[in-house]
């Protein structure tokens, strides 16, 4: 039996973004960017100098925050922390892999589609 | 008895087949949305590159460190699943107004018992104070006529954050009136940084002081507003190339596609959960 749909957050939750500088700039132009009173951002600019540990910490921080509903992560960045994304099972925040600036979207790398493939037995 | 068992197994098979077909449809929709998102991002990044070519570097150095999100996500819980893996949520975009002061003005106008014409006039005055560029173009009539109405309209409910913003706007109006009365009531219309046309030196100085104060107030009022409309565009200068505006609209469209993707992924969650549960049952049996 289906429950009635109810809004769990009246004020609205944020989107977090982990991607290259240009993609982040674009999403910030769209109005996604937020810096709270503790100077915590909801985005992480990833470049060649960003370490995997930094990306992991940022992802874990975003997934632990209660005011973030969706985490957008570019596929190139996601491939560096694949093990962390695979361990993320919560429905909120939802993790969504987006195409990178330099590489086109590869369905075989998407963690969600990998799981579907595994369960459906398409090997 | 055997016939009943056969019928129930046939029904189960039909249900499983339907579920399988639905999951394939959802998967196809997901892939189509990803392709659309890729095109939109490509277009947005191309426009951003064009903007960089015409105005120079665009990057982290220009970000506002006090930015506030103007686009948020409303989360709806759907489905009656009790398990975390099977629970489903829906996402909707919520867009907020670019300026908190503008929000206060419209909220005050809605709450006021005054007739609509007076309310519009009052809200126009308040919005003029909170104009994005901070330069107010008012006439004496606006200030004098709305004087009484404005005070009456100031009866407000307690504990509302918007009332603070409205109070600030009214403070600026009062200061303007004081400055005008102090200088003999010069015409303020069209006042820029350099003072009015043909005004005396004192009223020109007062106007430039006023304009500076209003700029400061406008900046303070609009700085917390964050994105949407022109908010983030202003980080990169007053006059931005059209390519940057195109990039903004491109990424806004991409954002909507992202939320559609998130909703599609959420639809796949219960199917994944039920499939994995079914696979787990079959595993020990074989």
TrEMBL record, chain A:
Protein name: V-type proton ATPase subunit F
A GO CC term assigned to this protein in UniProt: proton-transporting V-type ATPase, V1 domain
InterPro entries (UniProt xref): ATPase_V1-cplx_f_g_su, ATPase_V1-cplx_fsu_euk, ATPase_V1_fsu_sf
Role noted for this protein: Subunit of the V1 complex of vacuolar(H+)-ATPase (V-ATPase), a multisubunit enzyme composed of a peripheral complex (V1) that hydrolyzes ATP and a membrane integral complex (V0) that translocates protons. V-ATPase is responsible for acidifying and maintaining the pH of intracellular compartments.
Keyword Transport carried by entry: yes
Similarity comment: family membership: Belongs to the V-ATPase F subunit family.
Gene Ontology molecular function terms on file: proton-transporting ATPase activity, rotational mechanism
SUPFAM superfamilies referenced in this protein's UniProt entry, alphabetically: AtpF-like
Top-level taxon in the UniProt lineage: Eukaryota
Subunit composition and interactions: V-ATPase is a heteromultimeric enzyme made up of two complexes: the ATP-hydrolytic V1 complex and the proton translocation V0 complex.
Keywords: Hydrogen ion transport, Ion transport, Transport
From TrEMBL, chain B:
Pfam families from the UniProt entry: Vma22_CCDC115
Transmembrane segments: none
InterPro entries, per the entry: Vma22/CCDC115
Region Disordered: start-end pairs: 139-167, 181-231
UniProt biased composition (Acidic residues): 141-165
Superkingdom, natural source: Eukaryota
GO MF annotation terms: unfolded protein binding
Gly residues composition-biased segments: 182-198, 219-231
One of the protein's GO biological processes: vacuolar proton-transporting V-type ATPase complex assembly
Annotated Polar residues bias: 199-208
The protein's name in its UniProt record: Vacuolar ATPase assembly protein VMA22
Organism: Volvox africanus
Lineage per the UniProt record: Eukaryota, Viridiplantae, Chlorophyta, core chlorophytes, Chlorophyceae
